[in-house]
Amino acid sequence: MIVVDVVFFVLDLAVLYSVYVILASSLNLEYGEAGLPNFAKAAFFAIGAFSVGALSVRLGAVFLDMALEGDFKLNSLRWAMSVSQSVARNPFLGLGIFIATLIVAVLVGSVLGVLASYPALRLREDYLGMLLIAFSETIRIVARNYDPLVGGTFGAGVVDFLAWAGSPLREILLLFLSVVVAAIIWLVYYRLSTSPFGRTLRAMRDNELATESLGRNIVKLRMMAMMIGSAMASVAGVLYAYYVGTVNPDDFTTSKTFLITLMVIIGGSGNPYGPLVGPAVYLAFDRLIQFTKQRLILPFDPNYLSYIVLGVVLIIVVDRHPGGIVPEKPTLTLPRELRSLLRQRRVEETWNRQ
């Protein structure tokens, strides 16, 4: 029994780490590279989960020609179990539901990311942050009060697209899928960060006027950063929803955004390796607190201990390592325009000497 508990604990930790790596990578692209304080990260995380909660049961019913009679809020869990039983006999049904919800989540997240980028064209960072917080809360409140979307306060059931595998193979496959998806997304982010696109984003972050004077379109750069980052966060929401098995709007409050921001700051903003370090540090402290808080005698609610400890960790890291545990390294490659100017100057000097 102890061995089984340890195995499931490791599986739980690895899946959550994969989800947080995706979220931290998406925020690091937007904030660390482009300088956009996306305080609506919880909203784009929720979009992926809401896509699963709203569509997995309905798509399964369409594929199975099953009538959904009654209130979605009251019956979604029962319908999800019914569809999952059919998935247990037909693995391709589960695969089709997973792929369809993933595509919808990425498309919706990308479109809303583009729409959210428009205020960034006119507002300063502080006003932009406040506006995006309001945007995030608006999406959560709409989902919480519009029952047909994800069941409102009751939440929505999620089809188990791996029901055909059975336990513990199901958990192992979900772990493998989460790790592979997280690795692919991190590699995409790493490639973007070390490419001319990433160097241009950092140039825009440091000096917009100089970047624009070199012919770069600031509007397009911000839009692309928000679109890519939002699509990444939506993928994390899809994995999280299928892992938890239910979707509830109250799981995606603004505190989730600040938690992801904490991971980025601790790991290292602007460094591609920061999204790997930050979630690991957070999960290590979070699990340690979970194990010890019930054994401590405290003058306050033990549930608030994690906020205190993580706040202290953040203060220490910012004080001792302002750039995070793995701070951003200076770019060694010169921008293309500067290389061209230097090359032209060397040609002119050679011509003058001759």
- The beta-strand count equals 2
Cα Rg = 23 Å
Indicate the structural class.
mainly alpha
- Low-confidence parts: none
- The number of helices is 14
Helix content: over 70%
Beta strand %: under 5%
* The number of domains: 1
**Spatial sequence of strands, sheet with the most strands:** 1-2
The general outline is: globular
**Distance between the amino and carboxyl termini:** 84 Å
Q: Averaged pLDDT, please? A: 86
* SSE arrangement, N to C: HHHHHHEHHHHEHHHH
Overview of this structure, please?
This protein has 14 helices and two strands; from the N terminus they run H-H-H-H-H-H-E-H-H-H-H-E-H-H-H-H. The protein is mostly helical and 354 residues long. The chain has one domain. The termini are far apart.
SSE blueprint:
Layout (H helix, E strand, L loop, with lengths): L1 H32 L7 H24 L7 H18 L1 H27 L7 H21 L1 H4 L5 E2 L11 H25 L2 H11 L1 H6 L4 H27 L1 E2 L6 H14 L6 H19 L12 H16 L15 H18 L1
In short:
Helix content is 74%, strand content 1%.
Supply the key terms.
branched-chain amino acid transmembrane transporter activity, membrane, 74% helix, 354 residues, two-stranded antiparallel ribbon, transmembrane, mainly alpha, 1% strand
